[in-house]
């Protein structure tokens, strides 16, 4: 049983119950129970291979793309199991979007990058698209830096700008949950801090789950921290508690750098 | 090589420095009160001079703690170790300052004799506060939350003696107005000792925080 140090009665956005995941014979996640609170930032931490990224990818069924993956248990997004066969995965990934480790802008203009999602969801009206692009870039704190070069290639932006563009691209389809897989690990410290500031601003309107190897980043940005080890969720609680007085010795050893 | 072994070494070093500071501070209280009881201004002057050593050691240990926070970003128990170290340091430094306050009061007393009853009370008070510091640091060394808590109960005894001294000195002043100068200084001294006990209690609270991660108010 995972010790949960959270006392706040925040509304749960996602309820994960007895989640196990197998890559063929290898069990990467073992009976994980975790509640993801709405409008909070949940950080997933743990050593390489502990299952945190695998867990993140189960939340919008990205693991479905990998051959031989078997998922057991349930993930309820606002009460509905996202692993039911009738679930429209494209729509699910619109509601739960993901930002990856390395910025991956499409080789097209800044404008077209952000317009990509709304367009494939059928939006053609130019005025509406313009509004969405401006709003998304504002939300991603990028508008001021790119408004003069909206129609130039996105590949000319800096790494940090590209990552914020990817966030803007995600926001353009109005998701509810943002999954971030080490979103600043390829960025310099200033770009990293900009992303962290942005995450703080975004949590007012979105539920955010972030995987990070950077312990200080987890401590700085998140409200809730979950520690994974060998596919198990070891401890889950308020970030302040996890980083000042963790209950489990394994959490203590990991976050204080005495692991292994 | 074990991860963080140089960090662990630095933490142990800080702890040993704190014990050294505690010894100096304990000695300063003993010497300050002894100088007062014997009305020995030279001894009191020595206490004042020794405070420089306490302040220097305090600054040195504090710098080590700040460096560890800046360079090692301690977390969990390590973070509590460094924070507790700083808290204990601060309490010890303040206790050292009160030893100086007592020494300064001693240098202001011109009479050749001290009120005997008050002298007995102050000696007792001094013994208890020294014991509190010793026990607090012992609990710190052994990571013994129960001992830290028990030590803090001695604060009530100190408060009780302080009340008695206060009453005694007021009675003295009323009976013999000429005693007002000495009585006032002795009142100050008893107040300093009472404050020292409060700082010792803070050390106990810091030790409990280190061990349990919980904040407990003990005075």
Describe the structure.
By secondary structure, chain A is an alpha/beta fold. Chain A is 35% helix and 27% strand. Chain A has helices spanning 52-58, 89-95, 110-120, 126-139, 143-146, 159-171, 189-202, 215-221, 239-244, 249-255, and strands at residues 3-4, 12-23, 26-37, 41-45, 69-77, 80-81, 96-99, 177-181, 207-211, 224-229, 232-238. In chain A, the strands form 2 sheets. Chain A has a 7-stranded mixed sheet, with helices on both faces. Chain A has a 4-stranded antiparallel sheet with strand order 3-2-5-6, with helices on one face. In chain A, helix 3 crosses helix 4 (126-139) and helix 6 packs parallel to helix 7. The longest helix of chain A is centred in the middle third of the chain and has 14 residues, at 126-139. Residues 1-5 of chain A have low confidence and may be disordered. With 219 residues, chain B is mostly helical. Chain B has one domain (3-212): Phosphate transport system protein phou homolog 2, domain 2 (Methane Monooxygenase Hydroxylase, Chain G, domain 1, Up-down Bundle). Chain B is built from 6 helices and no strands. In chain B, helix 1 packs parallel to helix 3 (76-108). The model of chain B has no long low-confidence stretch (mean pLDDT 95). Chain A binds chain B through residues 215-216, 219, 243-246, 251-252, 255-260, and chain B through 2-4, 7, 73-80, 212-214.
Question: Quick summary of this structure?
Answer:
Chain A is of the alpha/beta class. Chain A has helices spanning 52-58, 89-95, 110-120, 126-139, 143-146, 159-171, 189-202, 215-221, 239-244, 249-255, and strands spanning 3-4, 12-23, 26-37, 41-45, 69-77, 80-81, 96-99, 177-181, 207-211, 224-229, 232-238.
